Amino acid sequence: MTDIKELKFGADGLIPAIVTDYYTKEVLTLAYMNEESLKISMEEGRTCFYSRSRKTLWRKGETSGNTQQIVSIKADCDKDALIVEVIKKGPACHLGTESCFNDEVYQSEEVKSFSLQKLYELIKGRKTDKKEGSYTTYLFDQGIDKILKKVGEESTEVIIAGKGGDKAETIFEIADLTYHVFVLMAEMEIGLQDVLEELAKRHVVDKKVKQQRMQ
Question: Domains of the chain by range and CATH?
């Protein structure tokens, strides 16, 4: 375990802190900490930073309510930068977006950026900003019964492909099922983080059960 005294704060007394989402691993923001704000963050279990413009400490969410519960803080190999994993409550950016990093500067034509969160946001967008000719918009227009029917059909397709032992076909059908489950989630206003939090709870329970069995 690295001691705070081992960290290399800059000449201004600050160390950069890259904040990432514990569940999605998405980079949320880049902020700065001094030794005092780092200690406060560790004591309170919530992110506290140092504002370079206002020259003062500030706790994330103290005015917006968009707090960040700290899961872990790690230093890099040179001990002059930190990664802070958090469980966020509300958007990370003051502009109201999930992450501060939204303005694309470069994107490889060979490797397209993809994440489950981006897929979910795209699907959710088809519900609020309907696009003519979009299959996703069609499902939302048809309503919950149609969506549930498609989830059931795709579940059956996964079973058939899996039973047949066809790996490629099974992957294809799982992708179809995942998409339709995301449509269901968006329809019911269930966020991806809601599901990840539920899975995390089960992981904690599994660890406790395993520990109890070892005692």
Answer: 4-88 (3.10.20.810), 116-214 (1.10.287.1080)
